[in-house]
Design brief:
Elements: E1 2-3, E2 6-8, E3 11-13, E4 20-22, E5 25-26, E6 33-35, E7 40-44, E8 47-49, E9 52-53, E10 60-62, E11 68-72, E12 75-77, E13 86-87, E14 94-96, E15 105-108, E16 111-113, E17 116-117, E18 124-126, E19 130-133, E20 136-138, E21 141-142, E22 149-151, E23 161-163, E24 166-168, E25 171-172, E26 179-181, E27 187-189, E28 192-194, E29 197-198, E30 205-207, E31 215-219, E32 222-224, E33 227-228, E34 235-237, E35 242-246, E36 253-256, E37 259-260, E38 268-272, E39 298-300, E40 304-307, E41 310-311, E42 319-324, E43 328-331, E44 334-335, E45 340-341, E46 348-350, E47 359-362, E48 365-367, E49 370-371, E50 381-383, E51 391-394, E52 397-399, E53 417-419, E54 422-426, E55 429-431, E56 442-444, E57 449-453, E58 456-458, E59 461-462, E60 471-473, E61 478-482, E62 485-486, E63 490-493, E64 496-499, E65 515-516, E66 521-522, E67 535-536, E68 543-547, E69 555-558, H1 588-591, E70 612-618, E71 629-635
Parallel strand pairs: 1-4, 2-6, 3-7, 4-8, 5-9, 6-10, 7-11, 8-12, 9-13, 10-14, 11-15, 12-16, 13-17, 14-18, 15-19, 16-20, 17-21, 18-22, 19-23, 20-24, 21-25, 22-26, 23-27, 24-28, 25-29, 26-30, 27-31, 28-32, 29-33, 30-34, 31-35, 32-36, 33-37, 34-38, 35-39, 36-40, 38-42, 39-43, 40-44, 41-45, ...
Antiparallel strand pairs: 63-64, 68-69, 70-71
Length: 636
């Protein structure tokens, strides 16, 4: 059935027979359908395209006071930009103008496509409760904000819920290519937010909750291929916005291949003053590390991966934490691989750590990220918070991050971590970070404070002779180390490979290694340690290389011959964290000691024992095409 425009003042219900409304113009709201106050519209298979309005709702306007709008398995829009619905103001496809707690506007299996709005909400503009299930919102355009969806659902109206929806290839001239949410509380579960673009911030989504401090939540969502010209290729959170990313059941949330072209935060751009809290509250490792992560309003939670995002003209390839007083908490997640930034923080950048922003990273991995500039800093992480208890990194691995274009003797520093203001770090593995000028594992800035407890540094490298392959501290920094391993880090210079942990003592180079609080193992004797229980030179950590040894992150296990076993806190078991990086008990109270480093054997009598594999072939000489038998014998 074909219809001209409908001004609904009563009740309309359409069945399985498809109806089409097209080619109409309204000098007001609702180019195709105006669902007025007191009216109800329930439709299945309805197609609304080619309509326009001089106000809101080029396709459909659901007016304030309307009793119901429920659409199932239909299409709002056309097959191309020339056949979609157009609104002169808001809601190119649909304008939901209901502001009450109820009724709930529902879209199930709907396709909202190729619509446009001169200002807000190219696909959908919503002031009230909205539920979208399955279906898609795609190829819509808004001149200002919210190319796909613009939500302004102020209290008491509930914010939108999106389940299994595909939001892709929408455009906004300013903010929120896919989604713009200015009140907060939007929940998206499953589905995808992909290939959307914004003229300024928030290629995938722009969240600016004013003033409710509601977190927007994305669970089990793929956020990919979005582009912002300025900040937040994937998601930008500003003003009082908050954000939670987590898994939905076994389906992870992935933030991947997004880009902030000229600004910061390829994956996530986070700047707000919100006070909302995360859904998880991780605990401290115990022992000398008693500070629990602070409540946060930016929450990257279990089952989230942030990878292959970029800020080619700025900072924070994966995440940029900028301005405001909001805090970031990352738990049981992975940042990397292949995030990159031009200048600072290939994986994570905390650009204003000294002005009020704290960051906590727990049970997580930051790996395979880089900064491209020769003077860039923090291939994995850049930042820190200068007020006690500083930013926190617990039970985590920072591995294989780099500054590939840094120069020997240059200022491309801190391949793994560049500490700008302050970190408290416990049970962490710093492994295989490299190609920095100074500080392959960690570079501590002149204003930096570092409290290191039971860390393991290994296989990090720099391009400068005595450049602190494991750790480099500027001359006026403040850092301490207790029970940590520095072993197998190297300077890769023009004259060859030289083993180097901390670049020598301050009397040898303009460098300040961590002040020892005891029980550290410095295998190359370049950290200048000399406190109680310190091991230097001939002692061997017998590290086994980064591997999955249990727990949520990879660790560098101790071999059976390691002198780190039982070497920490011999006279004072309270020097040991309660658990190791994997979450395994160190059993320090009953042992009267624990192991040095992030990995602990728990007093089981030894670490991993290296194995020898011998392969024999019989017969040893055969004709072409004949069979041979391979036998592998493993010993050790």
């Amino acid at each position: 059935m074909l219809f001209r425009s409908i001004d609904n003042k009563g009740t309309i219900t359409t069945g399985a027979t498809a109806s089409t409304i097209y080619g109409n113009t309204a000098h007001g709201d609702g180019g195709g359908i105006d669902n007025e106050s007191g009216a109800s519209l329930t439709a299945t298979g309805l197609v609304v395209y080619g309509n326009s309005s001089s106000a809101a709702g080029g396709g459909i306007a659901n007016e304030s006071g309307a009793l119901a709008l429920s659409l199932t398995n239909g299409t709002i829009g056309g097959a191309s930009s020339t056949s979609g619905n157009v609104a002169t103001t808001t809601g190119g496809g649909i304008a939901n103008l209901v502001t009450a707690v109820s009724p709930l506007t529902t879209l199930s299996g709907e396709t909202v496509t190729w619509n446009s709005a001169t200002t807000l909400g190219g696909g959908i503009y919503s002031l009230g409760p909205l539920s979208v299930t399955n279906g898609s919102i795609s190829n819509n355009t808004a001149t200002t904000a919210g190319g796909g969806l613009y939500s302004d659902a102020a209290s008491p109206a509930a914010p939108p819920t999106l389940t299994g929806v595909t939001i892709n290839s929408n455009q906004a001239g300013s903010t929120g290519g896919g989604i713009a949410d200015i009140i907060g509380g939007l929940v998206m579960t499953s589905g995808s937010l992909s290939n959307n673009s914004a003229g300024t911030d928030g290629g995938g989504a722009w969240i600016s909750a004013i003033p409710t401090n509601n977190n927007d939540t994305f669970s089990g969502v793929t956020i990919s291929g979005n582009t912002a010209h300025t900040n937040g290729g994937g998601i930008a959170v500003e003003a009082d916005g908050g954000l939670v990313l987590n898994a939905s059941g076994s389906t992870p949330t992935t933030v991947t291949s997004n880009s902030a072209t000229t600004g910061n935060g390829g994956g996530l751009y986070l700047t707000s003053t919100a006070s909302a809290t995360c859904t998880t509250s991780p605990s401290a490792p115990g022992g000398p590390s008693s500070f629990a992560p602070a409540p946060a309003n930016f929450c990257v939670e279990a089952g989230t991966t942030i990878s292959s995002d970029s800020a080619p003209g700025g900072n924070g390839g994966g995440i940029a934490l900028e301005g405001g007083t909001g805090t970031l908490q990352i738990t049981n997640s992975t940042v990397g691989p292949s995030n990159f930034a031009l200048t600072n923080g290939g994986g994570i950048e905390d650009g204003t750590g000294g002005t009020g922003q704290q960051m906590s990273i727990v049970n997580s991995t930051v790996t395979g990220n880089n900064v491209q500039s020769a003077t860039g800093k923090g291939g994995g992480i850049y930042g820190g918070f200068g007020t006690s208890p500083l930013s926190l990194i617990y039970d985590s691995t920072i591995a294989t991050n780099s500054i590939p274009n840094a120069l020997a003797g240059g200022s491309g520093n801190g391949a793994g971590l560049y500490n700008l203001y302050g970190f408290t770090m416990t049970n962490d593995t710093i492994y295989g970070n490299g190609s920095a000028s100074f500080g392959g594992g960690i570079f501590n800035n002149v204003s930096g404070k570092l409290v290191l407890t039971n860390l393991t540094f290994s296989a990090n490298d720099v391009k400068t002779s005595l450049g602190g392959a494991g750790f480099w501290g500027a001359t006026t920094d403040t850092s301490t180390s207790l029970g940590s391993i520095f072993a197998g880090d190297s300077d890769f210079t023009a004259s060859g490979n030289v083993q180097d942990e901390c670049g020598g003592t301050a009397s040898v180079t303009p460098n300040t290694p961590p002040a020892s609080l005891g029980y550290n193992l410095d295998q190359e004797h370049t950290c200048g340690f000399g406190s109680a229980g310190d091991q230097t030179g001939s002692n061997s950590a017998a590290l086994q290389g980064l591997a999955s040894n249990g727990g949520p992150t990879q660790t560098d296990a101790l071999g059976g011959t390691s002198t780190a076993i039982g070497g920490d806190g011999i006279s004072n078991s309270s020097d040991c964290p309660t658990v190791d990086q994997r979450g395994n008990a160190r059993i320090a109270l009953s042992r009267g000691k624990c192991d040095i480093g992030a990995y602990d054997t728990g007093g089981t009598g030894g670490g991993l024992t290296p194995t020898t594999t011998t392969v024999s072939v019989l017969p040893t000489s055969v004709a072409p095409g004949a069979s041979v038998t391979y036998t592998a014998t493993v010993s050790g």
